[in-house]
Amino acid sequence: MPAVSKGDGMRGLAVFISDIRNCKSKEAEIKRINKELANIRSKFKGDKALDGYSKKKYVCKLLFIFLLGHDIDFGHMEAVNLLSSNKYTEKQIGYLFISVLVNSNSELIRLINNAIKNDLSSRNPTFMCLALHCIANVGSREMAEAFAGEIPRILVAGDTMDSVKQSAALCLLRLYKASPDLVLMGEWTSRVVHLLNDQHMGVVTAAISLITCLSSKNPDEFKTCVSLAVSRLSRIVSSASTDLQDYTYYFVPAPWLSCKLLRLLQCYPPPEDGAVKGRLVECLETILNKAQEPPKSKKVQHSNAKNAILFEAISLIIHYDSEPNLLVRACNQLGQFLQHRETNLRYLALESMCTLASSEFSHEAVKTHIETVINALKTERDVSVRQRAADLLYAMCDRSNAKQIVAEMLSYLETADYSIREEMVLKVAILAEKYAVDYSWYVDTILNLIRIAGDYVSEEVWYRVIQIVINRDDVQGYAAKTVFEALQAPACHENMVKVGGYILGEFGNLIAGDPRSSPLVQFNLLHSKFHLCSVPTRALLLSAYIKFINLFPETKATIQEVLRSDSQIRNSDVELQQRAVEYLKLSSIASTDVLATVLEEMPPFPERESSILAKLKKKKGPGAVSVELEDGKERGELNGGGDRGVPDLTNALSTPSPSADLLGLRSAAPVSGAAPSAGSLLVDVFSEAGPAAASAGVNDDGFLRFVCKNNGVLFENQLLQIGIKSEYRQNLGRMYLFYGNKTSVQFVSFSTTLNVQTKTVEPLVEGGAQVQQVINIECLTDFVDAPLLNIKFRYGGALQNISLKLPVTINKFFQPTEMAAADFFQRWKQLSQPQQEAQKIFKASHGMDTEVLKAKLLGLGTALLENVDPNPENYVCAGVIQTKAQQVGCLLRLEPNAQAQMYRLTLRSSKDTVSQRVCDLLAEQF
Amino acid sequence: MHFLLLFSRQGKLRLQKWFTPVPEREKKKIVRDMTTMVLGRKPRSCNFLHWKDLKIVYKKYASLYFCCGLDAEENELLALEVLHRYVELLDKYFGNVCELDIIFNFEKAYFILDEFLLGGEVQETSKQVLSRSIEASDMLQEVCFGRSCLLSVLSIIFSVVL
What we know:
The complex is a heterodimer of chains A (926) and B (162). Chain A has five domains: 8-77, no CATH class; 78-329, Leucine-rich Repeat Variant; 473-605; 703-805, Gamma-adaptin ear (GAE) domain (Immunoglobulin-like, Sandwich); 810-924, TATA-Binding Protein (2-Layer Sandwich), CATH 3.30.310.10. Helices cover 52% and strands 11% of the residues of chain A. The longest helix of chain A is centred in the middle third of the chain and has 21 residues, at 300-320. The model of chain A is unreliable at 1-8 and 621-697 (pLDDT under 50). In chain B, strand 6 and strand 7 (121-122) form a beta hairpin. In chain B, helix 5 (127-139) runs antiparallel to helix 6 (147-161).
């Protein structure tokens, strides 16, 4: 019967298409097309009015030409005319043309919208569907503006035909995804949820996509869908394969609907209602059981549909992450698939296991498959499967198996496909750093990495190894020895020369005692590579040479000779020439003391997010590195209990003030294992990145973190990040607030109000963009309450409201005051009235590391006075708080008791409220 | 689903459907990447790939490759069956569909796709329901919607849909 439409449709079109197919060359094709375009243009411009059929035919030809990849700049008007034809076939072609070739010509959009409006109100289901398809295909903002109000009405109206409902649901979904702010929730939302109960399976299948999207954005409003979805799922899962008639696909009942239902449930936590939950667990068990049953058909469609549901069920189980029994069953099922003869299933099993590996219930179960996965990495024929195996090894890696996994990945790298080498290199580098027990292993691994895949070792990786070597003095000697050996290879990668140059320049002295690596031998080795290297590496080597002059005065003559040679001092590259000239001069005129100061060993690098991890994230796109987001348990055991604890205060996400930063890092003394110091490496990035709920209540914890520092991230949730930079002088301050939109969607009606006055901010924050706000602060008199900042904006349809205390505290207006011991005690005695003193005794809630304490006290804004207190364990500080009304002198004494893990903090000032407030604030910091 | 592409073994694009807004230049790049990537795969490789942030699912039917791009949370196996159901629908409509049918009746291939998928989501999965509505619109092909025959046509639609 459908034969009616074929062939006899448009003869001219068929002839044109076969002409194009017969063209022998690209030129001939273009010629034929240009001829046709000229013909169509003249017909459209001609005096004679075209009949509908011709118009349809020509529009269709234009469409064909466009789909071949040629530009079309006319015919839109004729296509729009077809929309209002009363012949179905002409209308249909018109809509197709518009859907494929949207032009944001506003005049045209108005006409198109008009035609759509007519068809939507025609009450003819076929026309309504055509119009809805067009809106869904175009999905532009103009269309959303015109129809976002109308479509929900069509969707829930009682007399709408099923097919129209299906189109309306998906059309609305498309508009919501494109312009969420234009689709307003209303009384239709509850009726949409009830479409889950619709008798027509097709309607449920279409509607559930819409419901899932809306639920993920507004979970509370759609909560009722959970129980409806569970009962619908349970009916499908328990039905016999023939019950659902044509909705059974190769003996699998309603696979699409089942998967969508399981997907919808993943927008929510496990159901609280025991009965609903019981029913759902039963469904999941049935699905897992069915996987063990013999197949009802040998067709691949049968097993695909069945396993699609199984994988979706496993995703839900992983999402709940609360049913150990189901998690282990899921893991076993995936374990079976790991060895399945279908490549697709092996691929998917590796992929799903990656997410299972991050659950504490199944991490161990996943680890039992390590040999299979390593085998897959070695033997799979298909690179995309090998890639998944590498991902899984990365995800299942922990302290217990890190050495094995890193070794396997390294050996795989030697033969790995070029397409995945760079990512593999990053992964090896991250694992090596994250799970390094002894840093000599780390250094070995990275140098091996450079040796095996030097071309793929990005700057981030070799920067990182240098940062770590500089920051850890226990590995410096070993690193110098190892690079020295590595450089002896006749051909070594330029990245190796860079690392070698940097490390020998800093720490070559540590191996200079051995005559086999005497200073001159080291220098000659480095210089033998010089001529093979690119300009940036040569520049680095020149710096290493001048460092050598400082480390080893005996090399001075040789190196000066090199610097003086024409190839250096007259080098055509400006940078090299400048370095050669300056270093030569520096080495000849500066005294050894000056030289030693200028060329001093590099200070430790501030710890921040590992540049490698940042790079991996960028490579994979946001959301793809969920594996790194480990739970607290994992974090605790990293790096041997965080022996270089950077306290929460100088956290990686923030930019701590320079003094706090360096002091925090120099603390070589190990913090006791129990201290909750954030691991100093990769993962500390996440220690405060947990999603803070966008609560209506005032957010306090951000506030307290800023008592002793001025810069950092004040607030962060899934949508918004607020960063702060502030500076204070005397009684004045300036604060920069940075509002960063973390999503890809615009925030609209963005506003901030402060209970004092501010300049307004831009009302729109584009996706991924940041806006800045400056607040000028003057301290009039001492105060306790911090200013409240209220932020409102619309994200999607929903209004977001966030209240924050701005971290402006009285101590920000401290001027440090240096004084001698006698002076201090005299003033201390002067402030002896009881109300002038505030005292607190409290338990240490962080480690009691000396340098950390000092950093915090300096961050407070006071001067830290040395040699004042007779007990060297104690700290005393002095400062003056500047307000407009008066100046308040303030003295502080902090007495730690390491045995009892307690502190006593005493404050004396000329004003009782100030003593009390500073004491309260500071007591929260230790 | 972000897009669906049909291309031949020689890399000739036969059908392209974009479910999310993509600039023309980007479209051309995606088509180029997909054809080179998919055509370069060895036989009996798995049907899934990662490409940027998308999962790519493809399958070869005779001389034609069907290839779609999915979001990270979409189900690959089900997408394979989406491709299969589309092939079945084309097959039912054309009767032993071949590449030539799709070349010469490209507009029909688009119409059938619109009945099945909308905005990248499955709209209807029943082959019976889908074939009926595709046939129904075919019967309307040359019918005039003048006042005189409107009623009779509406009755056709209703008889077909119900």
